[in-house]
Specification:
Blueprint (H helix, E strand, L loop, with lengths): L1 H28 L23 H18 L4 H27 L8 H23 L2 E4 L4 E4 L4 H19 L5 H20 L2 H21 L8 H18 L5 H5 L1 H20 L10 H7 L4 H20 L3
Antiparallel strand pairs: 1-2
Helix pairs in contact: 1-2, 1-7, 2-3, 2-7, 2-8, 3-4, 3-8, 4-5, 5-8, 5-10, 6-7, 6-8, 6-12, 7-8
Length: 318
C-alpha cells in the first residue's frame, strides 16, 4: 500500500503542475462551447478551456509506468492498461481538436470514434485472452467462470460501455474527476487485496491524477477535461478492472456511470417510442436534477456521496 500511496502523490503533483501550465495555453486555443438547450447557469462557462484531460493522461501514465520499472509491477499488464488509457485518450483528443480548435462540425463522426475505440478494445481483449485465458471473477458466488472465446466480445463491450458512461458523466464541474477518484481508490485497495499490483498501481496513479486535476476542475471550473480526459478515464478504469478480473465490480462501484448512461438510453428510447415525450427534464440525469432546481454543487456532492456509498458496499463483495 505504501507504493500505491507514493504513486498517488506523484501523479497528484504532476497533474497539478501540468494543469496549471496548460490552462493559459488551452484558454487561447480551446475554449468550450456550451449547449444552448442546457441549463441556463451553464452559459457562463462558455470559453472555459477544454482538453485539460491531457494533464490526467500524462500524470497517470507516467506514474503507472514508473511503477512497472521501479516497483516491478507486471509490465505486460501495465503496458496493456496504458495502451487502452492513452489510446482512448488520443481518440478523445482528436475529437476535441476537431470540434474545439478546428471547429469542424461535432468532431469525429460517431461511427469513426466508435470504430477506433473498438479496435483498441479488441487488442486488449485478444491479448488478455491469449496470455491469460477467459477467466472472469463473479462477485456474488466468489468464483471464476471461464467465458471461453466469448471473453473477447465481453471485454470489448465492458471497455466501450464504461468509456461511454464516463463520457456522459462528465457534464458538471468536478463530477467525473471526483467520482473517478473515488472509484479508482476502491480498485486500488481491491487490487492490493487480490495481489494484482499492476492494476492497483495504475488505479492509484489515476486517482492521484484525478485529484490533482480536480484542484482546477472543481466548481467553478477553470478547465474542463473534454473527451480527451473522459474517454481516457473510462478506458483506463475499465482496462484496470479487466486486468484485475473485477469487471463485474464496475457495475456496482461505478453505478453512477451506469445510471448516467441508462438515463440517456431511456430518454432517447422513450422519446422515439412516444413521439416526443420525455421521462427526464433533461438527460444525462445530472442535468435533470439541475432542471429540478438543485444547484450544480449540490448535484455533484450528492453524486460523489452516492459513489462513495457504492464503493463502501463494494468492499463487502470482494
Amino acid at each position: 500500500m505504501y507504493y500505491a500511496i507514493c504513486l498517488m502523490a506523484i501523479a497528484f503533483v504532476v497533474a497539478v503542475v501540468i494543469t496549471k501550465f496548460e490552462i493559459p495555453v488551452l484558454r487561447e486555443r480551446a475554449g468550450q462551447n456550451i449547449r444552448e438547450d442546457g441549463p441556463q447557469s451553464h452559459l457562463s462557462k462558455a470559453g472555459t478551456p477544454s482538453m485539460g484531460g491531457i494533464a490526467i493522461i500524462i500524470a497517470a501514465a507516467a506514474a503507472s509506468i514508473f511503477s512497472g520499472v521501479v516497483f516491478e509491477a507486471n509490465m505486460f499488464e501495465v503496458a496493456l492498461i496504458n495502451l487502452v488509457f492513452v489510446g482512448f485518450g488520443c481518440v478523445g483528443f482528436i475529437d476535441d481538436y476537431r470540434k474545439v480548435i478546428k471547429k469542424v462540425n461535432e468532431g469525429l463522426k460517431p461511427k469513426e470514434k466508435m470504430a477506433l475505440l473498438i479496435i483498441i478494445a479488441i487488442v486488449l481483449a485478444v491479448a488478455l485472452y491469449v496470455h491469460e485465458g477467459g477467466q472472469v471473477w463473479i462477485p456474488f458466488v466468489k468464483t471464476y467462470v471461464d467465458f471461453g472465446i466469448l471473453y473477447v466480445p465481453f471485454i470489448v463491450f465492458v471497455a466501450i460501455a464504461m468509456t461511454n458512461a464516463v463520457n456522459l458523466t462528465d457534464g458538471l464541474d468536478g463530477l467525473a474527476s471526483g467520482a473517478t477518484a473515488l472509484t479508482t481508490l476502491f480498485f486500488t485497495a481491491a487490487g492490493m487485496i487480490y495481489g494484482v499490483y499492476s492494476g492497483a498501481y495504475f488505479c492509484a496513479a489515476l486517482c492521484g491524477a484525478c485529484l490533482g486535476f480536480l484542484v482546477f476542475n472543481k466548481n467553478p471550473a477553470k478547465v474542463f477535461m473534454g473527451d480527451t480526459g473522459s474517454l481516457a478515464l473510462g478506458g483506463g478504469l475499465a482496462a484496470a478492472a479487466i486486468v484485475m478480473k473485477l469487471e463485474f465490480m464496475l457495475v456496482f462501484v461505478g453505478l453512477l456511470y451506469v445510471c448516467e448512461a441508462l438515463s440517456v438510453v431511456l430518454q432517447v428510447g422513450y422519446f422515439k417510442a412516444t413521439g416526443g415525450k420525455r421521462i427526464f427534464k433533461m438527460a444525462p440525469i445530472h442535468h435533470h436534477f439541475e432542471k429540478c432546481g438543485y444547484s450544480e454543487v449540490q448535484v455533484v456532492v450528492a453524486f460523489w456521496t452516492f459513489t462513495l456509498i457504492c464503493c463502501i458496499v463494494g468492499f463487502f463483495m470482494i
